[in-house]
Recover the amino acids of this structure.
């Protein structure tokens, strides 16, 4: 069975600032790509994995609605520690989510609410 999700977009008022935030928090480089109509930054992924991108937007950030979980497997505390120095805000620190591991809920540098997740 394949995932019903195929891609996601995360709005960014300042693309370079968002790239710096996600690279620091995820601990992996973010690839910025320039197309004739827009620049985007594709989030790290392996071939065939679900991913998405940061894209320039003047729309308000997503602080309500769906919550995207980003893998910070084995480095959740380090990821949380990178949130505020990189322009984000920790809304709810590390906490257990039953048998599914641990998460933290944060605002990214653009004001979008996201979750950072680790199974341990």
């Amino acid at each position: 069975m394949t995932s019903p999700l195929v891609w996601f977009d995360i709005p960014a008022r300042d693309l370079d600032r968002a790239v710096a935030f996600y690279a620091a928090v995820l601990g992996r480089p973010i690839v910025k790509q320039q197309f004739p109509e827009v620049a985007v930054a594709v989030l790290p992924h392996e071939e065939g994995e679900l991913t998405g991108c940061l894209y320039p937007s003047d729309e308000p950030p997503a602080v309500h609605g769906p919550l995207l979980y980003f893998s910070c497997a084995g480095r959740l505390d380090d990821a949380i520690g990178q949130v505020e120095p990189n322009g984000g805000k920790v809304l709810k620190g590390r906490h257990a989510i039953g048998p599914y591991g641990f998460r933290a809920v944060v605002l990214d540098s653009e004001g979008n609410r996201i979750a950072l997740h680790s199974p341990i």
The chain is about 15% helix and 35% strand. The longest strand covers residues 89-96.
